Amino acid sequence: MASIFTQIINEEIPGYKIYEDDYVCAFLDINPIKKGHVLVVPKVEVDQFFDIEEKMFDHMMHRVRYIAQVMRAQLKCERVCVFIEGFGIPHAHVHLVPANTPGDFDKSNVYKASTEELEEVQRLLQS
After folding, report:
1. How many CB atoms are located within 10 Å of the residue 7 CB?
2. Which terminus in the chain has less CB density within 10 A, N or C?
3. Mean pLDDT of the chain
4. Domain containing 50 — which CATH number?
5. Under DSSP, is residue 53 helix (H, G, I), strand (E, B) or coil?
């Protein structure tokens, strides 16, 4: 069965996409650490991050950098923190979290984002 990320990429389930090209897709985390938390995923379903094919890996990390720059400008945050986890969803992904203080990057702050919040941030990051 396709991962939840593949289902979002294929628009089989709703998602708040902010960027997409032939190789990667970026969308908002519906359970963010901080408002504007973004996930960047390869369109090819790969379980472990370091198993991503090298050219795809390079492209993905260039897009991570680009999206982080957009986030910093549009969300007016001091930094965009990055983390990669190896468990949870068997589809490699990079988390981008806007932050102004170290506390903004505290993973215990996860909450359920409202539709209104997600739509607002999606509009900001797509512009």
Report:
1. 15
2. N
3. 96
4. 3.30.428.10
5. coil
Question: Could you tell me the end-to-end alpha-carbon distance of the chain, in angstroms, rounded to an integer?
Answer: 34
Q: Which residues contact 34 (CB under 8 A, 6 or more apart)?
A: 97, 98, 99, 104, 105, 109
- The 8 Å CB, 24+ separation contacts for 21-24 are 21/63, 23/56, 23/59, 23/60, 23/63, 24/59, 24/60, 24/63
Q: What is the pLDDT of residues 66-112, one digit of tens each?
A: 999 999 999 999 999 999 988 889 999 999 999 999 999 898 999 99
In the structure encoding, which two tokens stand for residue 94, read together?
């990079």
Number of domains comprising the chain: 1
- Domain range for residue 64? 4-126
Check pLDDT > 80 for residue 127: no
* The two three-digit tokens of residue 2, written as one number: 């396709």
Mean pLDDT of 13-28: 97
The kind and range of the H/E element at 120 are helix 115-126
Phi, then psi, of 3 in degrees rounded to 5: -65, 165
CA–CA separation, 119 and 36 (whole Å): 10
